[in-house]
Write a structure and sequence with these properties.
With 609 residues, the chain is of the alpha+beta class. The protein has twelve helices and 34 strands. Helix 2 runs parallel beside helix 4, helix 7 packs antiparallel against helix 8 and helix 8 packs antiparallel against helix 9.
Length: 609
C-alpha cells in the first residue's frame, strides 16, 4: 500500500516472519484472545554436579549453601514449567531453577530472545563454584542469587475475562542472607511485554547489602537508552520502570540491570518494591531507537518499526535533513514489524504519533548505541559505611528511646512488640506492632506479628492477615498462622496445611525462628512438633531443645532432642540466622560434650569472622 508523506510516496510492506500467514494484510484490527497461564513440562539437558562442604573457610563464599563441583555426567531431565502466553509472546518459567524465565519466544518473528532452553551448561561461579547464566532471573545484590539453582515457591493465577492478564507468583523466603522476595510475573493479553512486580524484604534486624534487579544472558550487546540488543542473534530486551534503575553491567554475555549503580544497605524490616516492564525486540539487523512501546531501526534505505501493541490510525512523521516535515497515516500491527522504504530521503527524526498527538516512538539521528561488551560487572560492595545496629538485648527504656529516632523508630516498635509478646502482654504487643506499621506499612511480617498478638489476645485478626497476604501471598509464616490458629489435634498424620513447606525445609526453620524471636516458646514448640512430622531436621531438634530450656525448663526433653540431632551428619540446611546461632551457643554450654554442636560452632565462628 502507499501513503503520502507530503509530496512523496513511500511503499509500505511488512517484514515476513517464520509463519507463512505473516504476509497477510489486515484491514481491521483483529480481536485477541486472553493471555494464558498454565503448567507444562520441559526437557532440558543439564550437567550433573556434586555438592560438598569446603574444608577451607576461604572457599565457602556461598555459605550457607554447599559448594558445587563438576562431574563428567550430563542427562536430560523433565522440569515443571509455568508458561505465560498471548498472541505475541510466550514466556517459560522454571521454578526448580531459581524461578528464572528460561525462554522468551517473540512469536512476531519466531525469535527466541533468551536461549534455546534445551541444553544448559554450568559455568564457573566465584561464590558457589558453579552456576547457570541462562535465562532472565531476579538478583538481590547485582549478581545471580545464592539459590539461583534452587527450587522456588510458585502460585499460578489465571483470569476468566478476555482482557485479563496471565499471572504467576514466585517467592523465596529463605535465601541464606536474611532477604526474601515475592515477584508477581504477568503478561497482558494484547502487548508483547512481561511485567515484573517485585517486593523485597529484609527479614532480619541487621542492615543487609542490597541491589535488586534482573540479569539476563543475551550475548554481546549494545545499549540504546534502557534497551540492549544483540545484532548477531537479532534479539534484545528493553527494561522500563517508574522506579530509578541506575545500575547497568555486562560480563561474559550476561546483562545486569539494577536499582543502584552500587550496592546499598537495606534497613531492618525495610521493604523495597519496584516494577519492571521487560519488552522484547527481534528481527532487526541493528537497533537505533527503542522504548516500551516498541523499536525503530533506520538505515539509508528504509525505516523498520516494531510495536509492543497494535497502533491503528497513527501518524508517521519524518523530519528531513532539508528541514521538511513529511507525514502519513499508518496502521501498525503488533503481529509484524513493518518496513517503510525511504526512496532517497534522509530523515533526521522519525516519530510515530498517537491520534491524541502524543509521541509513541521517536528516533533522532543523534541517538547512539553504546557497546557493553567490556563493561564491568556490578559487585556487592556497599557504598555507604555499615550502619550502627539497634541492639535487641537493650532494656525496654532504650527501645523506647529508639522509637524517637526516625532511623530506628520502626525497628524499635517491632522489638517492643516482641518484648510484650514474650511477657504475654498481648494487647500491648498488638499496639506496638500497629505503631511500627504506621511508619512502615509495607512490612508483611509486622502485619503477621500483629495478627499473632491479636489471636493470642482472642481478638479478631482477619484484617491484619488479609494485609499480610496481599503483601506476601507465599509467606511461610502465614501458612503457619493458619495451622496454629486451629485447635490442637491429636492426629498422628501431618497437617496438609504444613506439608507444602516441606518442599523447602528451610521455611520450616524460618517460621520456628520467627516464633522464638517473639518469645512464644509454646507456639514454637507446637510448630516444631508439627514440622518434624514432615521433615526431621537437626536444626528443628536444636530449636525445640532451646525452647524447652527457655520456656518450660524441661532439661530431659532438651537433652533427648540434642541426642537425636547428634546422630545426623553435618549437611544442609546450615544455620545462618542469629536465632539459630543463639540456640546452638546455648545448647553447647548446656551440653558441652556434644561434638556436632562443637563442629557447628566452629563453622559459625569461621563464617562470622
Amino acid at each position: 500500500m502507499y501513503c503520502s508523506l507530503g509530496n512523496l510516496a513511500i511503499a509500505l510492506k511488512r517484514i515476513p516472519g517464520n509463519d507463512p500467514d505473516t504476509n497477510r494484510t489486515f484491514c481491521t484490527i483483529m480481536p485477541r484472545s486472553s493471555a494464558l497461564a498454565f503448567e507444562d513440562t520441559v526437557d532440558i539437558e543439564i550437567d550433573l554436579v556434586d555438592a560438598f562442604v569446603p574444608q577451607q573457610p576461604s572457599q565457602w563464599n556461598g555459605y550457607p549453601f554447599p559448594r558445587l563441583a563438576r562431574t563428567s555426567l550430563r542427562e536430560s531431565r523433565a522440569f515443571q514449567a509455568i508458561l505465560l502466553e498471548n498472541d505475541l509472546l510466550r514466556a517459560t518459567l522454571v521454578p526448580a531453577l531459581g524461578g528464572r524465565v528460561l525462554s522468551l519466544l517473540d512469536k512476531r518473528t519466531g525469535t527466541e530472545i533468551l536461549s534455546e532452553a534445551k541444553a544448559l551448561t554450568m559455568i564457573d561461579d566465584e561464590r558457589r563454584g558453579l552456576g547457570i547464566s541462562d535465562g532472565l532471573q531476579i538478583v538481590l545484590d547485582g549478581q545471580p542469587r545464592l539459590n539461583s539453582l534452587g527450587s522456588m515457591d510458585c502460585r499460578l493465577e489465571s483470569g476468566d475475562e478476555e482482557d485479563d492478564e496471565a499471572v504467576v507468583w514466585i517467592a523465596e523466603a529463605v535465601t541464606g542472607t536474611g532477604l526474601s522476595f515475592h515477584v508477581r510475573v504477568s503478561m497482558p493479553s494484547d502487548r508483547a511485554e512481561l511485567l515484573l512486580e517485585a517486593r523485597v524484604l529484609n527479614r532480619s534486624y541487621r542492615h543487609l547489602p542490597y541491589n535488586g534487579g534482573v540479569c539476563a544472558r543475551l550475548g554481546e550487546v549494545v545499549a540504546t537508552g534502557s534497551a540492549v540488543y544483540c545484532a548477531e542473534r537479532r534479539a534484545g530486551l528493553g527494561f522500563f520502570s517508574e522506579a530509578a534503575f541506575e545500575g547497568i553491567g555486562c560480563e561474559q554475555g550476561v546483562f545486569v540491570r539494577t536499582r543502584f549503580d552500587r550496592t546499598r544497605w537495606l534497613a531492618p524490616h525495610q521493604a523495597d518494591t519496584w516494577q519492571l516492564a521487560v519488552v522484547p525486540y527481534s528481527g532487526f539487523e541493528s537497533l537505533t531507537s527503542a522504548g516500551r512501546e516498541g523499536a525503530i531501526d533506520v538505515s539509508e534505505a528504509r525505516i523498520r518499526i516494531q510495536t509492543t501493541e497494535t497502533r491503528p490510525e497513527h501518524k508517521l512523521l519524518l523530519l528531513t535533513d532539508s528541514g521538511e516535515t513529511l507525514e502519513a497515516k499508518v496502521d501498525i500491527y503488533a503481529e509484524h514489524a513493518q518496513e517503510f522504504p525511504l526512496n532517497g530521503i534522509t530523515p533526521t527524526s522519525v516519530v510515530l504519533r498517537h491520534p491524541s498527538k502524543a509521541d509513541v516512538l521517536r528516533h533522532d539521528s543523534a541517538d547512539n548505541a553504546i557497546a557493553l561488551g567490556s563493561t564491568r560487572a556490578l559487585r556487592s560492595q556497599p557504598v555507604e559505611p555499615e550502619p550502627i545496629e539497634l541492639d535487641r538485648t537493650k532494656p525496654e527504656i532504650d527501645l523506647k528511646r529508639a522509637t524517637f529516632d526516625i532511623a530506628t523508630r520502626h525497628t524499635g516498635h517491632l522489638l517492643l512488640g516482641q518484648r510484650h509478646l514474650r511477657d504475654k502482654r498481648f494487647e500491648e504487643a498488638a499496639e506496638a506492632f500497629e505503631q511500627a506499621l504506621l511508619y512502615n506499612a509495607d512490612d508483611p511480617l509486622a502485619w503477621w506479628a500483629k495478627a499473632v498478638a491479636l489471636r493470642m489476645a482472642d481478638i479478631d485478626n482477619q484484617a491484619e492477615l488479609l494485609n499480610a497476604h496481599y503483601l506476601a501471598p507465599l509467606e511461610p509464616a502465614l501458612r503457619a498462622e493458619s495451622f496454629l490458629s486451629q485447635p490442637v489435634s491429636l492426629d498422628a498424620e501431618g497437617s496438609p496445611l504444613v506439608a507444602p513447606l516441606a518442599e523447602n525445609p528451610g521455611e520450616l526453620i524460618e517460621v520456628a525462628c520467627l516464633l522464638i524471636d517473639c518469645g512464644l516458646f509454646d507456639q514454637a514448640n507446637r510448630w516444631i512438633d508439627e514440622a518434624l512430622r514432615h521433615a526431621d531436621l537437626p536444626m528443628l531438634r536444636y530449636l525445640m531443645a532451646y525452647c524447652f530450656l527457655q520456656g518450660t525448663r524441661l532439661d530431659a526433653e532438651a537433652f533427648d532432642n540434642v541426642q537425636r540431632a547428634s546422630r545426623s551428619p553435618i549437611a544442609p540446611p546450615f544455620p545462618y540466622r542469629d536465632t539459630e546461632w543463639t540456640a546452638i551457643e546455648t545448647l553447647s554450654r548446656n551440653f558441652p560434650q556434644d561434638s556436632r554442636l562443637k563442629t557447628l560452632l566452629d563453622i559459625g565462628a569461621r563464617q562470622r569472622q
